[in-house]
Amino acid sequence: MRMNAKMKFLSRILCLGLVVSMALGILCACDKDDDFRNPQNGEPTLGEFYDLQTAYDNGWLSKGDLRNIAYHYADDAQKKGFKPTPKNPDMLSEETALAIKESYIKPYQESRPDSNANDVPIDGYYGTYNGLVAVYIRYGGAYCVVTEKNIGGIEFVFPDSHEILVWKSNEQ
Questions:
Q1: Angstrom distance (rounded) from CA 82 to CA 67
Q2: Is 143 exposed, middle or buried (0-12, 13-18, 19+ CB in 10 A)?
Q3: How many helices and strands (H and E) does the chain possess?
Q4: Which of 54-63, 80-89, 97-106 has the lowest mean pLDDT?
């Protein structure tokens, strides 16, 4: 009789452990996207620009990164209780800003040989996420069209045809 009671007790403990393990597994599998990145198509190329949609679709930015970028861009977390991560670094270094400008101007220099990096204004810096620097550059393009984007459920509204781009930093 005693052995049977011990077996029942052990089986209950085992069942309880199994239930707790399953519950934790289910909770961990939920869409906790604030810090989750899942690169789908390799890594971004150094010195290249990508729009937010491409960076998100490729898993280079998480939904939490998008929320932070939206917050720093429009001072709007779009979610009650959202606590943004401070920009890190707080400001772009002169070297990084120059590298961004030089990368940005390259395609224009073929048709405008007199253009240079000093012509490129970085109108906003919204943080660095996994080596991707989020910036808003207004150079070229149309200025009379409001652009609205919904990326990962986060709304972005831009006053013209330009939008936030991410640039793959050479620094890690």
A1: 8
A2: exposed
A3: 4, 6
A4: 80-89
Structure tokens at 81: 């209780």
Whether residue 116 is found in the same domain as residue 131: yes
pLDDT tens for each residue of 105-143 = 998 888 888 888 988 999 999 999 999 999 999 887 666
Q: Is 36 helix (H, G, I), strand (E, B) or coil?
A: coil
Percent pLDDT > 90 in the chain is 47
Mean pLDDT of the chain: 80
Torsion 93-95-96-98 (CA) sign: positive
Asked whether residue 123 falls in the same domain as residue 56, the answer is: yes
Residue 10's domain comprises: 1-30
The reply to whether 117 and 38 lie within a common domain is yes
Q: Which residues contact 47 (CB under 8 A, 6 or more apart)?
A: 99, 103, 167, 168, 170
Taken as a whole, the chain contains a residue count of 172
